[in-house]
Amino acid sequence: MADKKITPKDMREAVPHIEIKPVTVSNFAAGIASGTEFYSGIARKITHDLIAAGKGQKPGAVIKDESKLQRIAAEFGIITGGRNKNEIAVELGELLLKEFSKTQGGLLFLKRAPSKRQEIWHRQEILPSGIEYEISAAKKAEGADAQNPLLAGARCALADGWGANMIAAEIQDILSGTPSPTLQGEGKTAMVTGFSPEAIIYSLGGSFRGSLHPLIDNIVNGRIRGIAGIYNCGADDGQVTLAKELIKNDVLVLFTGDDASELAAAGLLVYEGAQFAGEGLHSVCEAAGLPPVLHMGTSVDNCRILIAASAIVKEGKLGDISDLPVCIAAPAVLNEKTMAIGQCFVGSGFYTMCGDSRLVDLTGDMEKQYGGMWDFANDPLQTAQKMIAHIDLKRKALSIDKSRERVLYDMAMRRELS
User: Which of 7, 337, 352, 394 yields a CA-CA distance of 20 to 30 A from 233?
Assistant: First the structure.
């Protein structure tokens, strides 16, 4: 695992086909627990790989991104000065292993979320403790009071995204190298993959302006209407129609999933895909050399969207993720994995669309509680329309619903910005 990225094939073969059942309050929480348990197993394995790499106990396991190792270690208060990377890796790995078994105190990566989001988690009593503790609690959740299993499921989902998946993605970067855009395949299988948050920052701003300001500027001036995530745990016909409708309306799409073959076959994951985008998004893609749909990795990597959204809030000096013109969609009927991921996005403040109306009776108060919510549509065009309407609502709330004149920066103006 240390030297090899988790592939879509690995992900599909690791979990058997899941039977679609009616969703009740109790099995909603239990389904989230099952999805989180799957990702927890991946994260625990990768954490052990990091420790083994630091101790030299696994042939071929090496640390390829030392700067990320140093940065995350420092983030958690680990002393890095005067120490070699292997010592730091062992200490970081042992610290992260405790995230699975502890029974109190919030997970370490939760501190990356905006402070307002953390306050919401505290107030709504959904701040998760250890990953395995929350899995167990969600599996056992029951009773006549519907809030008990819903709260247990909400805590477990946050432990999935901000815990297991974030641990897996960040350690994988340390061991295998943080992804950068790479063209894979040819013809109808061609796709540019590797759009980590760091890669998006570099692509838009370069080393000269290594920040999210170019992205934020393009959202404010209206060339990028908003950002939509699409995630899956298998191929789905509807995601191509959904993605095309979104980019046609100047919505930049971020994709994480176990099967990107249909998006690739539609030509949306290569630079030439900008031809399908609206005028504003097309101009950004053309200037930055970006596809209109950015492939951020497999379903484990959905946490990269959480990281990017939190960074935009911080750099844009906004209050919370729920203030952003962003949204998420899982176009297919939900299974345990997509249910856990989706509920994490809802609990993190995202408007979250899915093609599964079985949850509609369970999720009515979530927008009031969390600032994020589930919504449903069986048709991908209707899904896109609802997502665009939500983006427009957030743009209006931020007073950026009117496009601004495009300004072309010459070199002198760029130097002035620095």
Answer: 394
